[in-house]
Amino acid sequence: MKAFVTDTSLSIAPFGERAHELPVLGEPLSSIQERVLVECGIHRVDTPPTDEAYLLLGSRTWVTPRLLLRFLDRAAGAERSGGVRMKLEHPTFQRLTEPLQRLPAPGVHELALLPTGAAPSFEDLPTVTVHLDLTTAPSPDLHTGLSSIGVDELVQGDEMAYQIDHWSHLQHVNVLAMAAWGNEQRRLYLEGPLLPRIGRWISLLLKSRSLDPFRIATSLVHRGAGCVIHPTATVEACALGDGVIVGPHAVVRGCLVGDGCRIDDHASVGFSVLGKDVRLTKGAEVNLSVLMDGAMVSRGGGLQASVVGRQAFVAQHAIVMDRSFQQEVQVLVDGQRTGSGRAFLGVALGHRARVGAGVVLGFGAQLPNDATVVMDASRILRQWPEDSDGLVRQ
To answer: Fewer CB within 10 Å, N or C, the chain?
Structure first.
């Protein structure tokens, strides 16, 4: 089968790039789409085929291989009656993912099977429903003060699709993509023949030399060439690119770390995607975030559920707020503040944006490309006042 990817993506603020140009798991979404198609045995073409039925995929749509194959199975034969478009059905997944997505109807995504000679359009197509094979689990036990973030359930599995229409989607889809990959590996292992499964367990136990789950998690690390990890650092269930350096007492869990990244002493990073040459200085904290190539985050109040553009810089002791205790986080959409559907969301920093020491960024804030934000100069002591009585108030 052949597939044609049609450009339906919008320019995603504040980065000024279309969805297919922005990173998912460290690569442009367009590259991820290409990889999924190849895995499913589908050949991507530059022009819509005129000699056979074909798959139509929107350029802003991320889809897992398992879901793509299930859609094709459900849609088989539909091209003879004019084509069909995918509609997902899973209440929890839709509640967690659909806010701010520009869908024509709940669950209806930009994935279709079209007949021979059909124009590459999703308009006026009937839908076929795919009930997602996902399981739900209670969210991690949170402090009562965090009960307002509204995430009481999590979804698990490797049948997912997501349409990127906002910077917050970029953060969310990267977390989902990491989870989907992990669930895919688990499913393939459980569905595989018994003897190879036993062999993999023996290999893992020999590598970890322990039944301790933390030692096993440490063994589940892929290291690229030339990685240097200090003996006191904790690195668990991660994929590290070439030339990554992890300093003393740093903690890195469940992350995709690009080539040339440097994670300094006592830094902590969890369930995040770091692009190439990202730098986390001593004591920096990053969680559930996406840092694009060359970004740098210093010690401070911590960065959670955020997206940081290429070459952006966050100075020491900058604070990024990420929890709204009263209502959903408000974000900019088409120049207007609107609810994001989430009470836990950080910020978006454009490419080459700079955040100075002591700056406080509210949840949902976005900084344009090349913006610089510094603290109020009146709060900075530059010289001692001559008429001071020994006490200066700021």
So the answer is: C
> Tokens standing for 115?
């007949």
Average pLDDT, the chain: 88
Average pLDDT of the segment spanning 170-193: 81
Q: Which domain holds residue 176?
A: 2-186
pLDDT at 213 over 70: no
- How far, in Å, CA of 360 to CA of 48, rounded? 49
Q: Which residues are within 8 A (CB) of 2 and not within 5 positions of it... i.e. 6 or more apart?
A: 42, 43, 44, 45, 49, 52, 54, 55
Q: In the predicted model, is pLDDT for residue 200 greater than 80?
A: no
Rounded to 10 deg, the angle between the 194-208 and 167-191 helix axes is: 110
> 275-314 pLDDT, tens per residue?
999 999 999 999 999 999 999 999 988 899 999 999 999 9
Helices 65-75 and 29-39: angle between axes, nearest 10 degrees:
60
Query: Which tokens go with 264?
Result: 């300094």
Instruction: Indicate which CATH number applies to the domain containing 361.
Output: 2.160.10.10
Q: What is the CATH number of the domain that holds 87?
A: 3.90.550.30
The pair phi, psi for residue 130, each rounded to 5°, is -115, 115
In one letter, which amino acid is 92? T
Query: 229 and 130 share a domain?
Result: no
Q: Where are the beta strands (DSSP E) in 118-275?
A: 127-131, 135-138, 153-156, 161-163, 222-223, 228-229, 234-236, 239-240, 245-246, 251-253, 256-257, 262-263, 268-270, 273-274
Of 186, 206, 235, the domain-final residue: 186
Residue 394 lies in a domain: no
